[in-house]
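Dear colleague,

Following up on yesterday's call, I've attached the two folding results inline so they're easy to grep. Please treat them as preliminary; we haven't cross-checked anything against experimental data yet. The first protein's sequence and structure tokens come first.
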Amino acid sequence: MLVDWGPRRLDAALSDIRRAIDKSMKLSLLTISATTVLLIAGSLTYLRGGLGTPGELPVANIKTKLSSSAADSRNRANNKNEKTAEVAEKLNTVPPYSPPISVPVQVVFEAPANMTITWDTTGNGTFDSEPLMSPDRQNLSSGVIYRFQLSNIPGRRDTTLYPTIEVSSVTPRTESYLKYNAIPIGFTDSDLDQVAAGNFLTKVIYMPDPKFTEDDNSATATLVSYRLAPGVDPIVEADRRGSIFAIIRMHNTNPVIAADAPTVQSPAYGQPMSGD
């Protein structure tokens, strides 16, 4: 059957077709928009912990966070490399050795009075210095060990002793005291009795720390080996209590006897003694 498509009916049909197409396109756009929204929402839900919060622009925020994270990683790597290089430099660098500077230090021989004091100035065991009579003073160098000879000791005229006196290096703490004061050196009757009995004597003169200072607030203190408990080193103990000025070591051997002096030889095992 033929339909009469007049101008009006044709226009109406075309209008219906256009409306149908428009409606279909709108539905398609809505579907696409809904899908896009769902995808973005899912992405934000997945990335919300570190890359976004509601109300922010997702793409811009993600780019910002990723750039910041990359920068932080680079900074951490650079810091780690710098620390590693610093440690390696410290391990490979040996500080130059600076020996302590020897400065003049004065000592005063206080007791016993009227004994004769000489010391070895050449290292050949001759004790060739000008003699002192106690009490008297002498300038020595810090950081040096000296060997002295004590003779004409009152009440012990037949006894000659050969102590060594080690003058400690000057430290910032002892410098001020030693600039205006002498180190006191003295020997009591108990000291001399110990040596006469064959005991090795170590005597340390030191500057006590405030917590170890006696009631008289003395600037110097003394530790002697035979007055300490067995096994206690007076040098270590004095160093623990303060700053050491000098260390005196003394025994009853005679270093003047030359090393190549004749030595009495014992007979061989099984041989008779001389004169038998």
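Below is the second protein, in the same order (sequence, then structure):
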Amino acid sequence: MILLFEGVNGVGKTTYIRQVEKRTGWPAYSAFRGRANKYDSAMLEKLSRLGVPVNTFVDEMYMTDLVRSLGLNIIVDRSFPSAVAYDQVYGQGTFVDVEETAKIWLDLVREAGMLYVWLRAPYEVAHARCTGVRIGEDESEALEEHYRYWYDRLCVEKMMIDTSLLDVAEGVERVCRALKK
């Protein structure tokens, strides 16, 4: 089972992930790693010097296939929908065929089982909370449109939580109830 948290920077993904991780005992994984810890930083530098693409949706596809194959439970901080959203909003041109790639990912997550949690908050709230990379309001709105697209499209169990309206403890409770934990 994959518990996937999506949303723009500052909506509370890290807070939710840490709380759900404590409650369930499931490990958390970030497909799109940064320089948050020494291991990631050193690994990313080495791979980058070798010309190996890192922080791509491909990393997450392999992780999803591994989770599916081994029947594991895992919490994921962003996934394929974020990769597509950021790619399209920032014009990175990573995807040759988004629809065909999406079909592969959708098949994997259906087989693995997934609870998709889209965390949202008004721009002003998310921007004020953000401790990472801050994005502009236009980019935030465009990313939200992409998250809406994926939320509507996914044929898995899903929920949307406005973190400006719901206390973290209650939101975590809802997520865990959906997981039956």
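For the second protein, one point worth flagging: The two ends are 13 Å apart (CA to CA).

Best wishes,
A.L.
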